[in-house]
Each structure stands twice: as C-alpha cells, then as structure tokens.
Specification:
With 554 residues, the chain is α/β, with parallel strands linked by helices. The chain contains 23 helices and 27 strands. It has 4 domains: 246 residues, Queuine tRNA-ribosyltransferase-like (TIM Barrel), CATH 3.20.20; 72 residues, Archaeosine Trna-guanine Transglycosylase, Chain: A, domain 2, CATH 3.90.1020; 58 residues, Roll (Nuclear Transport Factor 2, Chain: A); 70 residues, Archaeosine Trna-guanine Transglycosylase, Chain: A, domain 4. It binds guanine and zinc ion (ZN). Zinc ion binds next to helix 13 and helix 15.
C-alpha cells in the first residue's frame, strides 16, 4: 500500500506500508552484508533507516545459510523492520557469477521470509547492443511473471540498457505483472561513469511509462550527490552499499562528491562524528576503526540528505535544492537539460502553486516545468503587460499571481503598475480556469493592505483571492460561474461525506478531467457541483493510486 502525502517537482513524500511496517519515502535502504556488518542494526535505526536491503544470493552461499533459513531473515539480522532482498543479479554482473536458478532464488527469498522479493533479472549493460539488450529485457519480463506466481511481494525489475524504446516496453510489460515496487536496473555503470544524462533519460522514460501508484527504486543509487535530482525526477527508493564500500576504501562522501581521507586537512561536515575529530587523528586509526568512523559519517550525510530532500518537498523548493546540487559536477548540470524533452509529462506532475517563491538560480530555471507551464497559460491573454524574465510578457493583472508575483529574479525591477481590482480578478480567473469571467461582481479590499480579499455578486460570495499566491479560490456558488475541471462521484454516501467537507479519496472517484496537482476543482454528483477543493493528485494518479486523498475539500 502506497499513499501520497506531499509533493513537489516530480518528487513525493509517500507512506508505504509493507507487512504492517510503515516506511516514509523518499528513503534510502542501507545495504546490510551479513558477513561484514560494520554498523549494528540498532545504530542503523538511529541514523534513520526504516527499511534495509540485503542480498539473498550472498546469504544462500554463506556458512550461515541454514541459520538464516531456520531463524528467518528478521531474527537472523536482528532487524524488526521491513527487509528487501536482492537476488544475485548484481553479482552475476560484477563478479561473473553464473548459473543462478531464477526459481530457486525466489524460493529461497520466500524461505527466509523476505518482505520484498527480487527476481533474477538480467543486467543490461550500457555497451550492450540492441539485440543483447532485447534478449535480456525480454527474459527479465518472463522471469518477473514467473516470480509473480511464487510471491505477491515482488519487485518489478526494469531493464533495457540505454535503449529508451526498450525501457518503455519493459515498463508496460512489468506493470502488467502488478508488482509491489518497480526497480530501475542496469544503471550502476552509468552512475560510476558519471553518465548522468543517460541516467536521467532512463529514469524519466520509465517514470512516464510506469503506473504512478507504486514506489520506484533506483537500483544501486547510493551517492547522496544524486539523491535530490533523482527524487525530483520521481525516484522514491535508493539503496546504499556506498556508505560501507566507500568507508572500506577510505572515501568520505559529501553531497558535492567524494573525498579521499588522505586528502582531507579538515572535515567539511557537521555530523557528530566529524565535529569531534580531526582528519590527522582518523588517518592514524587502525583500519577497522577508521572504516567505522567513515561509515558513520557517510551514513550521516546520506540520511541527512534524505531529510533535506523531504523538507524541500514540504516547502516546495525541491527544484531549488536540485539546482544547487547540480553544481557538484558539470555532467549533472548538463544532464538537467533532459527535463525539457519530458516537459509535457512534468508539467502535469508539478504543482500549480507553491509555498515557496520561485528563485532564479541559473539558466536551468528557465526550463523548470512551472516556468514553461506559466508561459503556456498566459499565451492568448490580452491587455497591457509587463516584462519579467523568464516568463516574458506577463498580463498586468497577474502581477501578484504565482509564479509571476512569487519569484525572485535578479535584475527585475517592480514595474509599479496599478491595475483595476476587477481586472485583476478577471485575469486571474482567465489564467487559472481558462475562461472569461463576464459576470457582474464587486470586489472587497482589505482595509489594512488594500489588497483584494473577496469577490461578490450582490450578496453572494463568489470567492476569495488567496493572499499567499494571488489565486482565485471559488466558493461553491462561485464555482458555478467558472469553467472548473470536474471530479465525478457516483455514490450518494460519498457525496454526503464530501458535502460535510471531508477529503475525497482516490477510490471513490468515478471519473475526472485532466487535473494538475494543486488546481482548484469542482466535485460533481448527479450533474450538480456539490463541493470545491484542491487536487493533491493529477488525473493519472487518481486512477492509479489505490489509496489516499485525491482532493482536499474546502
Ligand atoms: N543492483 C544494482 N543494479 C541492479 C539490477 O539491475 N538488478 C538487480 N536485481 N540488482 C541490482
Ligand atoms: Zn561527518
């Protein structure tokens, strides 16, 4: 069960329920190697781990195999939260392991009571020619379907190498198997080689072609430098062996890249480990202690970045965070341009009004979906305008409307235009709802600020202008005069709840228009508008999330 709670860019904060355990995404699943536990389970939990990932293949081939089967994975690892198991695919790729029997590996994961089971997918390499990639991708689909017969807690692994048409096909096929999680595989070499453009293309292609209501895992992504961009593109889950592997090799992770311990004269970090130590001391520690210090620091940075990302989603400034992270590497900065290719998709994902002002932080700001969408929405509007980059000529009446009024653009000077309040209302409505508003109405201004507060038609309240973003928020009466997008319900009982102002859940919605998150929408029952509210989900998500709130009723 997977439920969306908050969102920004193409990122989302979700509640994921796995066998009675609750996990908040986005999150990172630390990789636990039972043969080499460098950080205890209790400590992992303190770092913020809610779910861990371990490798069933490694366990199956270790001396403690029988013990694990006997105790079950949770007792064996002393972890009472959910456990995701990988299958050995990565060992086939990285260590040339052969002859993994797909069905045995599923059986084994079932035997040890894994919560999330991974099939033995076939790792597609960036250098695979199309024919090889097709064979591996198709065989992966077959194995996912076979595995689905053996477990209902399955990972749907998406392969396809660099071939976007194959990735797309794989997404459609794997979605038909209806797994619990989708995992985008075969991307480790791209990350190792800093081929972020190809990585981003793959992620966005998959996201566009996968159902929205399931978590998406970026397989093998463990460097905190790429978490923010990958969350913004739509990934919910990461797994990290990186914290431990880097520590093993005297590497120190930061959100801006990796340092070699030997090169550090200071620790550029405020984690509890780093503030009480100096590099010179740590360099002299015995191997094991050094490794533990580095693993702890790496985990602090890793989970710290996850918290930073969640907070950015909450504040609606995830793109701003991403733009600062892109500066970590020129390839990241360049890769960001791929969002242009997916603008139609992203413009339907990103919320229409945000809690934070839009900050111009460089050229990439110009291709952010909010910017492109706002430009599209003012196309065809008439009347006098003012110039604000990167939006272009903005109708004067939208001076206080998001994002035109809530954006900080270097070099922009407030044009100090005065607009008739009625014209502001008319233009705001045209901008938001795409319709002319020709009714007779009066405008009530705030005595303190002089800003528009309410809009009336004789003694009937038609709506208010929301102070934070200048949006026109219609009353139930006002909704009848607008061309609002509609959400249809067909059960009387639900209509009753909605009229009382209770949130509308996805599963009670019969049909809806092409809604964008954050839009004001009208709820219709029996051909009558019975309520207005704010959409949390778009049309596709409303049909694909089995759970959770779709519309917050006003
Ligand atoms: N770990 C890293 N990449 C992959 C992948 O493509 N498949 C599986 N099963 N595990 C991985
Ligand atoms: Zn630190």
């Amino acid at each position: 069960m997977f439920e969306l709670k908050d969102r920004d860019a193409n990122g989302r904060i979700c509640k994921w329920t796995i066998n009675e355990h609750e996990v908040t995404t986005p999150t990172i699943m630390p990789v636990v190697n039972p043969n080499k536990m460098i950080i205890s389970m209790e400590e992992l939990k303190k770092f913020g781990a809610e779910i861990i990932i371990t490798n069933a293949f490694i366990i199956k081939n270790s001396a403690s195999k029988d013990e694990c089967v006997e105790k079950g994975l949770h007792d064996f690892l002393k972890w009472d939260g959910p456990i995701y198991t990988d299958s050995g695919t990565f060992q086939m790729y990285s260590q040339g392991v052969k002859n993994l029997l797909p069905e045995d590996m599923i059986d084994f994961q079932n035997q040890i009571k894994s919560d999330i089971v991974t099939p033995v997918d076939l790792f597609t390499l960036p250098e695979d020619i199309k024919k090889q990639a097709i064979e591996k991708t198709d065989e992966t689909s077959v194995r996912v379907f076979t595995a689905k017969q053996l477990t209902n807690r399955l990972v749907g692994t998406i392969q396809g190498g660099l071939f976007l048409d194959l990735r797309k096909r794989a997404c459609k096929e794997i979605a038909a198997a209806d797994p619990e999680v989708f995992a985008i595989g075969g991307i480790v070499p791209l990350m190792e080689q800093y081929r972020f453009k190809e990585l981003f293309e793959i992620i966005l292609t998959c996201k566009e072609n996968l159902p929205a209501g399931k978590p998406v895992h970026a397989f093998g992504a463990g460097h905190p430098m790429i978490f923010a961009p990958l969350v913004a593109l739509g990934c919910d889950l990461f797994d990290s062996a990186m914290y431990a592997l880097a520590a093993q090799n005297d590497r120190y992770l930061t959100v801006n890249g990796t340092h070699q311990l030997g090169d550090l004269i200071e620790f550029p970090c405020n984690c509890p480990e780093c503030v009480k130590a100096k590099p010179d001391k740590i360099k002299k520690l015995p191997k094991h202690e050094r490794e533990q210090f580095l693993a702890r620091h790496n985990l602090h940075v890793t989970f710290g970045e996850i918290r930073t990302i969640r907070q950015a989603i909450k504040e609606n400034n995830l793109w701003e965070l991403v733009q600062t992270r892109l500066r970590a590497h020129p390839n990241l900065l360049e890769a960001f341009n791929v969002i242009k290719k997916h603008k139609k998709y992203l413009m339907k994902q990103d919320i229409i009004s945000k809690k934070s002002a839009l900050f111009y932080l460089g050229k990439e700001t110009e291709i952010r979906p909010e910017v492109l969408r706002a430009k599209e929405m003012i196309k065809g509007m008439s009347g006098p305008t003012f110039l604000k980059k990167p939006f272009g000529k903005v109708p004067n009446g939208l001076k206080g409307v998001y994002p035109f009024g809530q954006s900080v653009i270097p070099g922009f000077k407030d044009p100090r235009i005065k607009v008739d309040p009625k014209e502001i209302v008319r233009q705001t409505i045209e901008y938001q709802y795409g319709c002319k508003f020709n009714e007779n109405f009066t405008v009530e201004l705030s005595r303190q600020t002089g800003r528009i507060r309410r809009v009336w038609r004789a003694k009937t309240l038609l709506g208010t202008i929301r102070a934070s973003d200048g949006f026109f928020i219609p009353s139930l009466e006002g909704a009848k005069y607008l061309n609002m997008k509609k959400v249809l319900i067909d059960e009387e009982e639900i209509a009753k709840h909605v009229k009382e102002g209770r949130s509308l859940f996805t599963r009670f919605i019969d049909r809806c228009d092409d809604i964008i998150p954050g839009e004001e929408v009208a709820i219709v029952y029996n051909k009558e508008i019975i309520a207005v509210g704010t959409a949390l989900l778009n049309k596709k998500e409303i049909s694909e999330f089995k759970r959770g709130v779709a519309i917050k009723i006003r």
